[in-house]
Amino acid sequence: MTDMAKGALHGIKVLDLSRVLAGPSCTQVLADLGAEVIKVERPHIGDETRHWAPPTFSDDTSAYYATINRNKKSLTVDITTDAGQTIIKQLIADSDIVVENFKVGGLKKYGLDYNSLKQDNPRLIYASLTGFGQTGPDAERPGYDYIIQGLSGLMSITGPSDGEPHKVGVAVVDLFAGLQLTIGIQAALIARETTGLGQQVDVALLDSALAMLANVGMNHLASGQIPPRLGNQHPNIVPYQVFAGQGEQHFILACGNDIQFAKLCDVLAVDWHTDEHFRTNPQRVANRELLCAELSKKFVEQPRTYWLEVLDQAGIPCGAIHNIAEALAMPQALAREMVIDFAKQGSLVRALGSPIKLSASPVTYRSPPPKLSEHTDSTLADLGYDSEMIAKLKADGIV
Question: How open is the CA angle 120-121-123, to the nearest 5 degrees?
């Protein structure tokens, strides 16, 4: 098998000191792309997401842990001990990347901070993911996805316009921060090819969430106005929201431009696209309530299946609103291998696939989420520890 067939990052070694979701989501992407990832966990306890259950698979692997820990090796080490720190430093000496999500300064007392480690490994890329970043007045505060969704303004624009603010249904801030960390790591790898030196990658949940405000954040910067919560409506485009067909069957209509709106009017047998209140998108935004009320009257005349068919035939963007089972069972999702099964590797775990499709060096699913400490013996043996030494480390509670 060629290196390309083994993955785009084959030969890259990652020591994963992160836990829960944001950091491990980053290292799973690196692992899917072929990097060797050693996940360091606490002896006997492991990553706390191992215990975030139910649900679990029939082998007792929690679904949460399985979400972001495939293709990794599990090594248990107590990094608060001198012997544990020695093991970590031995691994780092031969690593390209360290990923950690400790509070700012949390690893310095163990000699595992970037400034300490780069002395012995100047090529090291040290990726830190925290709630608020390595600098600023809030740098030392712990960060949690839910709280950051609130602080960042994201919740202020999520949920019904006349209800309380809502968080997004999954921990999107954690996941986007993990992706930002992945991008930063890969940029640092490319920079190292030129400079020969590594660097620290500093990503914060808050920064990632603020960047995610995107056009809504820019609307505020351009206008000075505080963006309202619009429920399923779009702040800049109309009609671009959820409507109900006959029998309260909901669907999404997404008219992105004036041409599509004219086609919609043809489907509905109305001439609203010539009306000065609705002819252009800015006019439709200004008269949002009037137009959407009229559209709602039209759409309840036929069931959702009818509207999805005729709108699709007319080239007007639309779609059903699936539950999770329906979404994962879509023929398109299955064709794109967005559900994977580790049965061939002897595991009962099924998992969500990677969305990254590379033509020459595709992602690989080499191993299911590891059992706690599954690779401790083999990893220590690779470092030169013999069986007696490993047994003593276990007896002392180091690994």
Answer: 155
Q: How far apart are CA 220 and CA 204, in angstroms?
A: 22
Q: How many CB atoms lie within 10 A of CB 151?
A: 18
- 44 three-class SS: coil
H-run or E-run covering 254: strand 249-254
- Among residues 71, 75, 78, 67, the alpha carbon closest in space to that of 21 is found at 67
C-alpha span between 168 and 172 (Å, rounded)? 7
Residues with Cβ < 8 Å from 66, sequence gap 6 or more?
57, 349, 351, 368, 369
> What are the mean pLDDT values of the chain's consecutive 10-residue runs (399 residues total)?
79 97 98 98 96 91 95 97 97 97 95 95 97 97 96 96 92 98 98 98 98 96 94 92 92 95 96 95 95 96 95 96 94 96 89 96 95 96 96 96
- Structural domains of the chain, with CATH: 13-212+337-395 (3.40.50.10540), 240-321 (3.30.1540.10)
What is the rounded CA–CA span in Å between residue 239 and residue 260? 10
The structure's pTM equals 0.91
Tell me the two tokens of residue 308: 């999805």
Residue from 78, 145, 174, 202 carrying the catalytic annotation? 174
Tell me, yes or no, if 174 is annotated catalytic.
yes
Q: How far apart are CA 367 and CA 345, in angstroms?
A: 7
Class of residue 393 by CB neighbours under 10 A (exposed 0-12, middle 13-18, buried 19+): buried
Q: Give, to the nearest 10 degrees, the angle between helix 214-223 and helix 205-212.
A: 70
CA pair distance 258, 254, nearest whole angstrom:
12
pLDDT, residue 4, reads 64
Burial readout 206-244 (b: 16 or more C-beta within 10 A, e: otherwise): bbbbbebbeebbebeeeeeeebebbeebbbebbbbbebe
Distance (Å, whole) CA 387 – CA 368: 26
Question: Would you state the pLDDT for residue 225?
Answer: 95
Give the three-class secondary structure for 203: strand
pLDDT at residue 59 in the model: 84
Strand partners, 76: 41
Three-state DSSP at 279 gives coil
